[in-house]
Design brief:
5-stranded parallel beta sheet, globular, 37% helix, alpha/beta
């Protein structure tokens, strides 16, 4: 670490799921930050028989859709595994969309010409794309995790589309999250309130899990710790939860958060 690095002296708690944490952590450390990881979400593929059968049924009918939307890198990862299993050659008339540049990059790596919204790169930006305005009698398949925001599907249905979900994975706090938190060597980070100690939160779910952890451990002082969140919606959520030092990135992409 050198004093010339822009994040020299800054400490950041990395809360991304294990699958995405290392790249983000490396980017921070390249800029001089000291980091510690505490994944607030665990991503696991669905595994019960009913859920996997539902995915299989949708994948077998993939050629019935005109639009396929992937909401995350995990949606690309798990969705494309299923597609490769049942479609050695993918249908050529389907338009592929990605929410965010990282998702688009993952989709392009699978050989797709991904359509991605510019600017904020969130659901609202995707819905502004001209390709998704007039959808009368067209079918849209949304690849995502279980649960999540209904805005995308509801808006597309209002525009005339038939919308189905392909729900591929679950997002939940790690079972040992409380133990991990209590055993952190870097625990002093969560009690600091000065501007050099940050918590980076990449989603509303991560924010809520962080808040719940602070309440459970009675560490409400950390509500005054600087947090970094993506977009207006998560920033508003943080404010309502009582966080006092909120910085908003335009979206959750690593470049933007950095």
């Amino acid at each position: 670490m050198t004093s010339g690095q822009p994040l020299s002296g800054v400490q950041v708690l990395v809360t991304r799921p294990i699958q995405q944490a290392e790249k983000w952590r490396a980017r921070l450390e390249e800029q001089g930050a000291k980091t510690c990881s505490l994944p607030l979400l665990e991503i696991t593929p669905v595994d019960c028989t009913a859920d996997t059968q539902a995915i299989k049924n949708i994948i077998l009918n993939f050629d019935h859709y005109q639009h396929a939307i992937f909401v995350s890198q995990n949606a690309v990862r798990y969705g494309c595994e299923w597609l490769h299993d049942y479609w050695p050659q993918w249908p050529i008339d389907i338009k592929f969309y990605a929410v965010g540049t990282a998702t688009a990059t993952a989709l392009i790596a699978q050989g797709c010409d991904a359509i991605v919204a510019p600017g904020t790169m969130n659901t609202e930006a995707l819905l502004a794309l001209p390709e998704l305005q007039c959808l009368e009698a067209e079918k849209v398949l949304i690849f995502r995790g279980q649960g999540g925001r209904p805005l995308l599907a509801e808006t597309l249905i209002e525009r005339g589309a038939t919308v189905d979900y392909c729900e591929l994975y679950t997002r939940c706090p790690p079972q040992d999250l409380l133990d991990q938190y209590k055993n952190m060597d870097y625990l002093t980070l969560s009690t600091k309130t000065d501007l050099n100690h940050w918590v980076a939160l990449h989603s509303g779910e991560s924010l809520k899990n962080w808040y719940d952890l602070l309440i459970e451990t009675e560490n409400t002082e950390a509500l005054n710790q600087p947090i970094l969140v993506p977009g207006d919606r998560v920033a508003e959520q943080a404010q309502l939860l009582g966080f006092t030092k909120i910085t908003m990135a335009q979206n959750a992409a690593d470049d933007t958060m950095l």
